[in-house]
């Protein structure tokens, strides 16, 4: 089992390049099978979730060629099976996007109920409600969602009860190949919703309004080939921004869209960091003791739930008492006990964490409970005095490409290890 071993205490300084957005790439990869033509995707992050979805797409018969680390060519004309294997689905939740893609293209799909990060109960009722509104029958049989629309899908007017990224994208995909017009109200506005809409439009879909609460889709009969480059990952970028904050560092984060980072930038400035914005980069300088704040996670353009554990680590080192409110997922504070073992003072009550800042954290053996909390614990280890070992880093590898390599280039002392022998070697090396 892979672990990270970290010797903390160094401010992270330097430049880091951000890759393509995992969550955009997952939706776009699924949408790529909706045409029988060849689709070329660039700026794909080389992370486990993407590799699993590529396998899942290959598993239903599509041709998938990995041209290089960040480029894949996909051809969906050879798909012979609309039934996706559970092996893939249990590993990545976003394989539910194959439902919208297959249902849109073939008017039928069979996809097992999804797995993914354990950050709370994650219903998909809104996805299914949307497919039904488009005219599909949807049943759950033997652990799988079976959707079919033998007479085709038809445009409709859908009001989303809750703002959902996944449901918005899934319904948008299926509606792209429905007869007539669909309107999705109370749609999610995240950059990856916009990126998926742009991708579908580049294949000939007719989607307007992505990035606002109302998305209008005029269904088309066929989609065609495209070359497309995935948008930069705002959560990967935000993670390095908070790594700078917590380690009192100075990092230039390159290949980003600063507009997507506004909520994160605002919080960093509030807690005492300096943030400089460039055309496609941001620089975070953390020179002073951090200050307390309150933060509440919200759908975009609010403060992202996927950045909640990372800000909590910075606030654990800030002066005063901070309150972090999680309003999207109910089980996203599983890092709190681990942080406490590192000397933080965190008390969780319902959907809030009350954090009394401390002067320093100290290294400990901790375990990554999920993807973003895992990354946050690595940041905590980098800021802490002494040695931290992070277990279960398989979660982190789901969403961060070459995390340890990028951190090392910023001066971090971090190593991925697989045995006690390697841990001892690291300890000897750092003295
Ligand atoms: C996506 C992201 C995830 C991020 C989340 C919120 C991917 C692969 N994952 O997850 O990293 O944390 O957006 O930004 O892109 N809900 C329902 N019924 C549904 C669907 C959702 O009640 O059918 C609720 C959820 O329980 C949650 C809220 O809606 O409380 C938002 O979830 P949603 O935006 O759908 O998250 P995901 O798409 O699963």
Describe the protein's architecture and organization.
The protein is of the alpha+beta class and 431 residues long. Helix content is 33%, strand content 25%. The protein has helices at residues 22-31, 48-59, 86-89, 97-106, 125-133, 165-176, 191-202, 234-246, 262-270, 308-316, 336-341, 371-383, 394-397, 403-409, 420-430, and strands spanning 3-7, 13-17, 38-42, 63-68, 71-75, 108-112, 137-141, 144-148, 157-159, 181-185, 206-208, 214-218, 226-229, 250-254, 274-277, 281-285, 294-296, 321-325, 345-349, 352-356, 365-367, 387-391, 413-417. The strands form 6 sheets. The chain has a 4-stranded mixed β-sheet, sandwiched between helices. The chain has a 4-stranded mixed β-sheet with strand order 2-14-16-15. A 4-stranded mixed β-sheet has the order 4-5-3-13, with helices on one face. β15 (274-277) and β16 (281-285) form a beta hairpin. α1 packs parallel to α7, α8 runs parallel beside α10 and α10 runs parallel beside α12 (371-383). The model has no long low-confidence stretch (mean pLDDT 95). Uridine-diphosphate-N-acetylglucosamine (UD1) is lined by residues 23, 26, 94, 122-127, 162, 164-167, 188, 305-306, 328-329.
Keywords:
431 residues; four-stranded mixed beta sheet; binds uridine-diphosphate-N-acetylglucosamine; 33% helix; 25% strand; single chain; alpha+beta
């Amino acid at each position: 089992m892979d672990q990270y071993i970290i010797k903390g205490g160094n401010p992270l300084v330097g430049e880091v390049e951000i890759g393509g957005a995992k969550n955009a790439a997952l939706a776009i990869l699924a949408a790529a099978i909706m045409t029988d033509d060849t689709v070329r995707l660039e700026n794909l992050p080389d992370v486990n979730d993407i590799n699993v979805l590529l396998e899942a797409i290959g598993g239903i018969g599509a041709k998938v060629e990995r041209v290089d680390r960040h480029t894949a060519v996909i051809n969906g004309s050879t798909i012979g099976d609309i039934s996706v294997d559970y092996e893939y689905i249990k590993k990545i939740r976003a394989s539910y996007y194959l439902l919208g893609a297959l249902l849109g293209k073939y008017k039928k799909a069979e996809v097992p109920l999804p797995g993914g990060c354990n950050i709370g109960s994650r219903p998909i009722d809104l996805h299914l409600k949307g497919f039904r509104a488009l005219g599909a029958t949807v049943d759950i049989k033997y652990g799988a969602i079976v959707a079919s629309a033998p007479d085709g899908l038809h445009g409709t007017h859908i009001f989303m009860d809750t703002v959902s990224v996944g449901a918005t994208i899934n319904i948008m995909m299926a509606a792209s190949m429905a007869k007539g017009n669909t309107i999705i109200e109370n749609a999610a506005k995240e950059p990856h919703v916009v990126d998926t809409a742009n991708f579908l439009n580049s294949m000939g879909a007719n989607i307007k309004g992505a990035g606002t609460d109302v998305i209008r889709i005029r269904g088309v009969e066929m989609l065609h080939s495209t070359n497309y480059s995935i948008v930069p990952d705002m959560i990967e970028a935000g993670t390095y921004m908070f790594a700078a904050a917590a380690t009192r560092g100075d990092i230039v984060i390159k290949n980003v869209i600063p507009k997507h980072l506004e909520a994160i930038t605002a919080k960093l400035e509030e807690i005492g960091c300096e943030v400089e914005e460039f055309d496609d980069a941001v620089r975070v300088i953390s020179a002073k003791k951090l200050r307390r704040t309150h933060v509440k996670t919200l759908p975009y353009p609010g403060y992202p739930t996927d950045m909640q554990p990372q800000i909590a680590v910075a606030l654990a080192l800030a002066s005063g008492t901070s309150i972090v409110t999680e309003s999207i997922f109910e089980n996203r504070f599983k890092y709190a006990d681990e942080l406490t073992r590192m000397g933080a003072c965190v008390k969780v009550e319902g959907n809030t964490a009350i954090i009394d800042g401390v002067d320093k954290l100290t290294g400990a053996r901790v375990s990554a409970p999920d993807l973003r909390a895992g990354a946050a614990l690595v940041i905590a280890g980098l800021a802490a005095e002494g040695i931290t070992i992070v277990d279960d880093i398989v979660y982190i590898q789901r969403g961060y490409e070459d995390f340890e390599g990028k951190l090392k280039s910023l001066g971090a002392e971090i190593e991925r290890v697989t045995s006690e022998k390697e841990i001892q070697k690291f300890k000897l090396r750092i003295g």
